[in-house]
TrEMBL record:
Annotated InterPro entries: GCP, GCP_N
Residue ranges of every copy of the Gamma tubulin complex component protein N-terminal domain listed in the record: 5-259
Protein name, entry field: Gamma-tubulin complex component
Cellular localization per UniProt: Cytoplasm, Cytoskeleton, Microtubule organizing center
Superkingdom per UniProt: Eukaryota
Broad class of the protein's primary localization: cytoplasm
Key words, A-Z: Cytoplasm, Cytoskeleton, Microtubule
Protein family (similarity comment): Belongs to the TUBGCP family.
BP GO annotations: cytoplasmic microtubule organization; meiotic cell cycle; microtubule nucleation; mitotic cell cycle; spindle assembly
GO CC terms in record: gamma-tubulin complex; microtubule; spindle pole
Regions that span the bilayer: none
UniProt GO molecular function: gamma-tubulin binding; microtubule minus-end binding
Length: 261
């Protein structure tokens, strides 16, 4: 049963624990399982489910493609560079949990008499981390957060007062900030919007050239090729709901001005 618990906690299976938690099975196995271990089984199942949800989420996020992502529960979310960065940071932040499971498995192999309560005591410190990360994933899926809006949500959950959670959040937001810094670098240095998924807080919009025609003199219009006059003008604007609250309002305006020069 200990090995079944380790597999379940690693996001593999978990049906054995659920069967053992069943009332009829538990009654039949009272000679092997103490009644108080029923509560322990329930806690282990909850922890296993929390980790499995996060594991499945990270595996569902593709490395490329623009099609909507369908999660295991049927929910759909838009793909994007920020979502991929979040998924990567989420996977990295769970490394201490996975390492702990490996060490726990070695301990069980060395001491086969390890009880369920002993297993629970090893994974219980990770409950706040798993709970927080599941809450964040749920916010992204439920609110269909996209692009820089993910940064805003992460910023709101950045400080929890729990070292393990704060370290994980710092890692995740660092991964997401790398995307924004790459976009800013591309825009400020080269005037190129690196934004295939419409996630950045600066976007381009096409405008008509009718006003240009009317404002030009006859001499001006004769000196400009017709194909230039007929081409739509590209303008840029700030997408306010994509600007994280911790970025001063003047920064996007200055960035827009510099990149559009």
């Amino acid at each position: 049963m200990n090995h079944a618990a380790i597999l379940a906690l690693g996001g593999i299976g978990g049906d054995v624990l659920r069967v053992l938690y069943d009332e009829e099975v538990l009654t039949a196995m009272l000679a092997f399982i103490h009644p108080c271990e029923k509560t322990i089984l329930k806690q282990l199942i909850n922890i296993a489910d929390s980790y499995k949800t996060l594991k499945c989420f990270t595996r569902r996020i593709p490395h490329f493609g623009k099609e909507q992502i369908t999660l295991d529960d049927g929910s759909k979310i838009m793909p994007g560079m920020y979502l991929r960065a979040f998924s990567s940071g989420l996977h990295d932040s769970l490394e201490p949990y996975r390492t702990n499971l490996v060490n726990l498995e070695k301990k069980i192999l060395e001491f086969p008499e390890t009880t369920l309560s002993g297993i629970l005591s090893e994974v219980l410190p990770f409950v706040p981390l798993l709970t927080t990360l599941n809450s964040i994933v749920n916010q992204i899926v439920t609110n269909k957060l996209h692009g820089c809006k993910i940064l805003q949500m992460l910023h709101q959950n950045l400080l929890s007062g729990i070292d393990m959670v704060d370290t994980a959040m710092a890692r995740i937001i660092q991964c997401c900030h790398q995307v924004m810094l790459k976009q800013l670098t591309s825009w400020l240095l080269h005037g190129h919007l690196l934004d295939p998924y419409s996630e950045f807080f600066i976007e381009s919009c096409m405008t008509s050239t009718d006003g240009l025609h009317s404002s030009m003199t006859t001499l001006d219009s004769e000196s400009v090729p017709d194909n230039v006059l007929n081409e739509p003008l590209t303008e840029y604007r700030i997408v306010l709901d994509q600007v994280p609250s911790y970025i001063p309002p003047s920064v996007p305006e200055k960035a827009k001005f510099v990149g559009s020069m």
